[in-house]
Amino acid sequence: MEDGGNAGVADPQDFVGAIVERWREIRPDLDSTPMLVAARIIRLAVLLDNELRPPFAAAGLATGDFDLLAALRRQGPPHEASPGQLAAAMLVTTGAATKRVDRLEAQGYVSRRISNADRRGRVVGLTKAGLKLTDDLYGVHLANEARILQPLTPTERDQLARLLATLGASMEQDAGVVTP
Length: 180
Hints:
This protein is mainly alpha-helical. It is 63% helix and 7% strand. It is built from 7 helices and 3 strands, in the order αααβααββαα. A 3-stranded antiparallel β-sheet has the order 1-3-2. The two termini are 37 Å apart.
């Protein structure tokens, strides 16, 4: 439908669809259909976080902690990066990255050392325990994501992934985000 029509509002269990339908009644002069996408993405982000968090919590980690471990694991051996590189890879501030490093260092999953290139700089690296935990949790994480996405066919998953990539790239470009 060209104007969005009733796309996505037919299901009475659809919380966002019901909100859009109510706005159509209140303000029929405005096109509320962008909410069918934006509000669903926001709502799904919260629901996804709730579903993805338990395996990390069971390992004593916050979701952001796993994000840091995974960012280091993606680096080639010896799985090291500067705090600034980690912050960029996780799309967080250097302060947020430092807090995560502090927690993970206290747990023995990462270590810090002085940079060989610049004695003022620091390098964060995975410990053997951190590498093992990351590799173990990554499989659990992927299985959890696959479970969550099971209602979608492989074709639907591919279509959704492409659409989200297109929207994400556009928004990142508009925001000046540099992809690591």
